[in-house]
Amino acid sequence: MMPGARLLVARFTKFGLVGILGAVLQALLFALLSSSVHLPGAWAALVAVEIVVLHNFLWHERFTWRDRKTSGFRQKIIRLARFHAMNGAVSLAGNIFLAWLLIERLKAPALPSELAAIALCAPANFLAADAWVYRPPLRPNMLNPKQIAPKSL
User: Fold this and answer.
1) Which residues 6+ apart lie within 8 Å of 113 measured at CB?
2) Domain count, the chain
3) Which of 39, 85, 103, 133 could form a disulfide with 43 if both were Cys (CB 3.0 to 4.6 A apart)?
4) Which one-letter DSSP state was computed for residue 152?
5) Is residue 146 part of a domain?
6) Is the pLDDT of residue 151 over 80?
7) Which residue from 122, 96, 101 is spatially nearest to 23, judged by alpha carbons?
8) Please, what is the angle between helix 41-59 and helix 110-128, to 10°?
């Protein structure tokens, strides 16, 4: 296996571990919000996903993509905004739609439906996080391809 592929597999494994932890938290929150607080399925999914998006960001910063450091507070806030926008869009839109479809329309059991939604949204979240949220910083020669090309006379 090529070094880049090994790194991607290792990172996806870490992503999966954080995801499993987040999924357990999301399922517990969803169950609590839907059964004890009596929120409708889509609303319980919305609140549970929002909490888990923030939880997962903290874990990914310190574990999954810890080798891709930010240079300061401003970059960390930008990264959080990107993570939230990307992960929130995929997870919130995906989970709310799937919760609505499975629970409200198809009358499937709530908790298995929520777990299915999490599993279906995970690969898209990983790819977007690796490519956009945690992308390595651009090196100067990556900004301008002419900097690395020899000048012709």
Assistant:
1) 41, 98, 99, 102, 103
2) 1
3) 39
4) P
5) no
6) no
7) 122
8) 40
Please name the residue that has the structure tokens 């923030």: 54
| Residue 109 within any structural domain of the chain | yes
Q: Examine residue 62 and state whether it is found in any structural domain, yes or no.
A: yes
Contact 28, 34 (CB under 8 A): no
Q: What does the block give as tokens for 62?
A: 């310190």
Residue 40: closest CA among 114, 94, 117: 114
Q: Is residue 49 part of a domain?
A: yes
**Domain that residue 47 falls in:** 10-135
As a whole number of angstroms, the distance between CA 148 and CA 153 comes to 16
**Tokens, residue 142:** 């990556």
Does the reported pTM lie above 0.85? no
Q: Residue with structure tokens 């609140």?
A: 47
Per-residue pLDDT of 47-83, as tens digits, reads 998 898 889 999 999 999 999 988 889 998 999 999 9
Residue at token pair 């499975």: 102
